Structures are given as structure tokens and as C-alpha cells.
Amino acid sequence: MQYIFTKDWFDKNSRQNWDRIVPIINPKKILEIGSYEGAAACYLIEKLGKNNFLEVHCIDTWEESDDIPKEDAVIVEKRFDYNMQLAVNKSQNKTKYFKYKSQSHLVLSKMIADGVGDFELIYIDASHYAVDVLTDAVLSFKLLKAGGILIFDDYLWAGDENIVYYPKIAIDSFTNVFSKHIKLIPAPLNQIYAVKIT
């Protein structure tokens, strides 16, 4: 059985960097915000799940968005479910995963309120709108373990609207405000890697 991925966004933008960085961190508790068909989560399970017990949390609305027409949203979610089950099976069931079909700020706020946390890797790849990216970043930082890594995708993404709707302004704001609490890891500019130091 093979994964069903219809987009190559993850491979094109991430795999080479992640091959280098992820084994060093060796995370066992992972949070992904914006899962789409599950390519990044499946990569992490395959990379880490054969030798470790993993806990992977995936948040997405699986609703109409900039990337998903309304009529395709159900199909994309079904692909995610299929791909994740396949990845878990390949890890010989060493992976426990949690799926949250909701807006990210609602799930992240509940996790904070419930005392869920100590994530070692958090990947932010959901909405491109600056206010959403900044909200995801600030809430995620509270859930990130010291020494854990926060990965932002789509740093240089640009649409046809006002700049305040681009991820870059939100990511720059976060990294500036939290500069004394993070260490940035050099990487190609489409992604930003921030390690929590306090």
C-alpha cells in the first residue's frame, strides 16, 4: 500500500532540511497545525516511529480554504485519514495520533487550559493570514518544551492581497518579540526554524 498525496508541497519545501534537523532533535511528541493530506506527519512517523513511541497531534479544519475548493475538502480529509493509518501501521503501531477537526486557536487554547504541552516539535503550516499565523505561533510557544523546535512554513508566501495577509509579517513579529526566548537555526528562507531556549 502507498500513500496518496496529490500535492508535493512538503517534499519540495521541507524534506531536505528535515532530513538534517529532525534526527538531531529526535522528537517524540509532535504537533502539526495544518495537516492537509498528512504528508509532513507521515514523514515524521516514518522517520522516527520505527525506533520510538511517538505521539502526533494534527489540527486542521478540512474545510474550504485558499488551497482546497469546498467540493474537495471531504476527499482531502479522507486522504489524510488513509495516509495516517498507513503511517501508523508502518510504525508497527508505535505511534499514537490525535486528530482535531477544528480551527487551530480553539484547539491550542484548550490544550493550554487542559495542561497539554511539552511538545518537542511544532509545525505551523495552516492559514496564510498574518493574524492566524501569529495567533498559532504565540499559543504554540506556550505548548513547546524548552529545547523543542517551532517550524514555520510559507515564510515567503505571497498572495494578491495586502501584505498583512502574508505569513512573513507575522513570523517576523513573533521572532522579534520572542527573540530572547528562541534561537533561530539557519535554513533556506521558505521555512523558519526556532528553538525554544527558555
CATH topology category name: Rossmann fold
Instruction: Give the ordered list of helices and strands.
Output: HHEHEHEHEHEHEE
Q: Any idea what the radius of gyration is?
A: 16 Å
Spatial shape: globular
Oligomeric state of the chains? single chain
Arrangement of strands in the largest sheet? 3-2-1-4-5-7-6
Report the CATH architecture: 3-Layer(aba) Sandwich
Distance between the termini: 43 Å
Helix content: 40-55%
Q: What is the mean pLDDT?
A: 92
Question: How many runs of DSSP E, i.e. beta strands?
Answer: 7
The CATH class turns out to be Alpha Beta
Reported for the largest beta sheet, the result is:
7 strands, mixed
What does this structure look like?
- The protein has 198 residues and is of the alpha/beta class.
- The protein is 40% helix and 22% strand.
- The protein has one domain: 3-Layer(aba) Sandwich (Rossmann fold).
- A seven-stranded mixed beta sheet has the order 3-2-1-4-5-7-6, with helices on both faces.
- Helix 6 links the parallel strand 4 (119-124) and strand 5 (144-152).
- Helix 3 (39-48) packs parallel to helix 4 (73-90) and helix 5 (104-114) packs parallel to helix 6 (130-143).
- It is globular.
Q: In short, what is this structure?
A:
This protein is an alpha/beta fold.
List the helices and strands and how they pair.
Layout: H1 9-13, H2 15-25, E1 29-33, H3 39-48, E2 54-60, H4 73-90, E3 95-101, H5 104-114, E4 119-124, H6 130-143, E5 144-152, H7 167-177, E6 182-185, E7 192-196
Parallel strand pairs: 1-2, 1-4, 2-3, 4-5
Antiparallel strand pairs: 5-7, 6-7
Helix pairs in contact: 3-4, 5-6, 6-7
